């Protein structure tokens, strides 16, 4: 196996264990790895091109979902009608 | 589930919990309800119904625990148990059915070389939204919970009554299906989808 400690230009082009790596990357993106994740992530992104691409794609998808799918306007009267119903039920 | 040592809140406490811990989540609740039902009136009913239940069963809410997750769980169950029955819209995939088919934690992770982060970033809100809405409800649900609302795997496991391993694998499958949708959009929009790095 080739050892590659160089910067981004020389990431290896094949990931040795796509299953494990991608699952790990996705857990890191989902905030499930805590502080431990950061070190692993830095290493993966620096050394492995498939991991690098997968990470950025997954991150882009999470970002657009978060930023573009949460703005459904809530009907004005909804909160009031809920309070009213609660009041009546007491 | 039986509630052990359930304490009773006073009226004042109930009102304080309801206003202070439940009502602040109304935006997220409505967004979730709308993405489950695709209908403003149904979403409103579902949210109202959820809050009524939350109030009725407020004694089983433990103060200091995650109110948002508690509310989302009630909403999800209301959706499955009641809304689904009276809904005119046939469900694409049934939760239980999916449970049986997709309860395995084994997932194949593959590299998606034909969808690029840049293409995704260029997409409009409607395209993302349509792609999400095209997913079967159980897959849509995990993406809403994780990516729109930021719930942890553990919280999602509680909301959905499934093991954490299933949360992880279902989420992964859901994202793969979403990527397929996005890929179609990207191709139809003429985005660069299958070329190698340009520079």
Number of domains of chain A: 1
Largest sheet of chain A: none
| Model regions low in confidence, pLDDT < 50 over at least 5 residues of chain A | 1-8
Rg for CA atoms of chain A: 22 Å
- Secondary-structure element order of chain B, N to C: HHHHHHHHHH
Please report the number of helical segments of chain B: 10
Main beta-sheet strand count, sense and barrel state of chain B: none
Strand content of chain A: under 5%
* Extended strand count of chain B: 0
Assign the structural class of chain A, choosing from mainly alpha, mainly beta, alpha/beta, alpha+beta, or little secondary structure. mainly alpha
Strand content of chain B: under 5%
- The coarse overall form of chain A would be elongated
Please give a handful of descriptors for the protein shown.
heterodimer; A: 90 residues; mainly alpha; elongated; disordered N terminus; B: 199 residues; Rna Polymerase Sigma Factor, Chain: A; Arc Repressor Mutant, subunit A; 2 domains; 64% helix
How does this structure look, described?
Chain B: Belongs to the sigma-70 factor family. ECF subfamily. Chain B: This is Sigma-70 family RNA polymerase sigma factor. Chain B: Residues 25-88 form the RNA polymerase sigma-70 region domain. The complex is a heterodimer of chains A (90) and B (199). With 90 residues, chain A is mostly helical. Chain A has one domain (8-89). Helix content of chain A is 66%, strand content 0%. Chain A has helices at 18-29, 34-47, 49-68, 77-89. In chain A, helix 1 runs parallel beside helix 3 (49-68) and helix 2 (34-47) packs across helix 3 (49-68). The longest helix of chain A is centred in the middle third of the chain and has 20 residues, at 49-68. The radius of gyration of chain A is 22 Å and the shape is elongated. Chain B is mostly helical and 199 residues long. Chain B has helices spanning 11-22, 26-37, 40-56, 67-86, 95-101, 117-122, 125-133, 137-148, 153-160, 164-188. In chain B, helix 3 packs across helix 4 (67-86) and helix 7 crosses helix 10 (164-188). Chain B is elongated. The termini of chain B are far apart. The model of chain B is unreliable at 99-103 and 195-199 (pLDDT under 50). Chains A and B meet through helix 1, helix 3 and helix 4 of A and helix 2, helix 3, helix 6, helix 7 and helix 8 of B.
């Amino acid at each position: 196996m080739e050892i590659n400690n160089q910067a981004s230009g020389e990431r290896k082009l094949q990931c040795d264990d796509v299953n494990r790596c991608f699952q790990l990357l996705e857990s890191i993106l989902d905030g499930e790895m805590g502080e431990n994740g950061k070190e692993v992530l830095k290493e993966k992104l620096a050394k492995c091109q498939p991991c690098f691409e997968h990470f950025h794609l997954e991150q882009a998808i999470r970002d657009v979902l978060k930023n573009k799918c949460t703005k459904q306007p809530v009907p004005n009267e909804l909160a009031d009608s809920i309070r009213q119903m609660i009041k009546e039920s007491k | 589930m039986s509630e052990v040592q359930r304490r009773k809140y006073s009226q004042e406490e109930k009102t304080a919990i309801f206003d202070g811990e439940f009502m602040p989540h109304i935006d997220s609740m409505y967004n979730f309800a709308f993405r489950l039902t695709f209908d403003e009136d149904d979403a409103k009913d579902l949210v109202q119904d959820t809050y009524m239940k939350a109030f009725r069963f407020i004694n089983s809410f433990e103060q200091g625990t995650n109110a948002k997750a508690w509310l989302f769980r009630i909403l999800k169950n209301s959706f499955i148990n009641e809304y689904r029955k009276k809904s005119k819209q046939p469900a694409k995939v049934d939760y239980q059915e999916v449970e049986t088919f997709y309860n395995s934690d084994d997932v194949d992770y593959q590299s998606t070389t034909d969808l690029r982060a840049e293409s995704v970033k260029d997409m409009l809100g409607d395209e993302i939204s349509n792609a999400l809405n095209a997913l079967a409800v159980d897959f849509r649900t995990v993406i809403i919970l994780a990516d729109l609302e930021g719930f942890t795997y553990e919280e999602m496991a509680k909301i959905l009554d499934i093991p954490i391993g299933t949360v992880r694998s279902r989420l992964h499958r859901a994202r793969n299906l979403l990527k397929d949708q996005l890929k179609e959009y990207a191709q139809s929009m003429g985005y660069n989808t299958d070329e190698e790095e340009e520079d």
